[in-house]
């Protein structure tokens, strides 16, 4: 299989599997740390309106979902890619980072969470996964 095709497939699989890890952790989060009383997190408008009720503990799983989703996606990409393994892993990290920016713009999360999430959960995790996956 040509290197270009294998690299593209690696990025696609990394995004799909990383996205699945992300969503699995988001779904699990409400079962481990229930949302504030009366808040329906399945409706985006209600989530936006009730973000002020969320405590720091409610942001643990979203951060883990973003960081681990990015890490797993970038790692898988680096393992599958034929050439430019680190670059391919960072492409996945960058795409997840852009999704994180959209998330920050859509949800009125606390500033501390937005900064932590954007600075730590995406590009550093992709870099680490790229290093480990390139071995």
Please render the helix and strand layout as text.
Layout lengths: L2 H30 L11 H7 L9 H21 L4 H22 L4 H10 L2 H11 L2
Helix pairs in contact: 1-3, 1-4, 3-4, 3-6, 4-6
What do you see in this structure?
- The chain is mainly α and 135 residues long.
- The chain has one domain.
- The chain has helices spanning 3-32, 44-50, 60-80, 85-106, 111-120, 123-133.
- Helix 1 (3-32) runs antiparallel to helix 3, helix 3 runs antiparallel to helix 4 (85-106) and helix 4 runs antiparallel to helix 6 (123-133).
- It is elongated, with a radius of gyration of 16 Å.
- The mean pLDDT is 95.
CA(first)-CA(last) distance = 21 Å
| Computed Rg | 16 Å
Strand content: under 5%
* Count of discrete structural domains: 1
If you average the pLDDT, what whole number results? 95
Please give the count of helices.
6
Helical fraction equals over 70%
Identify low-pLDDT runs: none
Helix-strand sequence: HHHHHH
Global outline: elongated
| Largest beta-sheet details | none
| Number of β-strand runs | 0
Structural class: mainly alpha
């Amino acid at each position: 299989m040509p290197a270009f095709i294998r690299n593209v497939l690696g990025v696609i699989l990394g995004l799909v599997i990383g996205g699945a890890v992300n969503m699995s952790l988001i779904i699990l989060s409400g079962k481990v740390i229930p949302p504030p009383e009366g808040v329906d997190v399945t409706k985006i408008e209600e989530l936006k309106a009730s973000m002020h009720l969320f405590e720091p503990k409610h942001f643990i799983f979203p951060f883990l979902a973003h960081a681990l989703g990015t890490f797993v996606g970038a790692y898988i990409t680096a393992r599958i890619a034929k050439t430019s393994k680190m670059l391919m892993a960072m492409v996945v990290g960058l795409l997840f980072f852009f999704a994180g920016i959209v998330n920050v713009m859509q949800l009125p999360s606390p500033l501390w969470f937005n900064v932590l999430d954007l600075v730590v959960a995406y590009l550093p995790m992709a870099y680490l996964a790229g290093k480990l996956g390139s071995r």
